[in-house]
Amino acid sequence: MRAPVRERSALRAPSRKLSLSLAIPALLLPALAIGADAQAPTPKVSYYHEVRPILQANCQGCHQPAKSKGGYVMTDFKKLLAGGDSEGAAIVPKHSEKSSLLKMITPQDGEVRMPKGKTPLLDFEVATLKAWIEQGAEDDTPADARKHYDTEHPPIYSRPPVVTSLDFSPDGKLLAVAGFHEVLVYENENDGAKLAARLIGLSERVQALRF
Question: Are 186 and 174 in contact (CB under 8 A)?
């Protein structure tokens, strides 16, 4: 009576192996789906939030209307793309290999041409600029942030500005006062103070002044 039992157990073994072999590929399907999602497109690089701060911190000090070295102005978007007196177009949308700006900030034989005399840009900063150019070098500056101040378009005050800092020159003849997008310089005279200069810049608020 025991023999038939052994025969039935022997017949069941292949069916168990078959069910296991069918289950293994099913378990792999989620992993394959995850692998496909890992190849998602590169996020869009923002000029206003990512590229502009890099240029402000490293380049615009020497390339602005008041100090345009090489005839290159980087504070105006159209002029930023155009480039300076030499080197050709600074930024060619979708063509980083033709963009002279990228060539000047990318190390060649361990050296970089720009920013001149300063610490080179970090690798991720260069990569950010390159990705932005390859994606089309679009200007996504918000409409309400496009207002520009310079010597021809100085700030107009509707109320007194917040004075965050001031300083006298060593000889006591000049007083510098922080304003909105500018530093106002006054001359000390016998009959009072006279406005001598308005040093207009990019920063909305100047935190510290010193002669």
Answer: yes
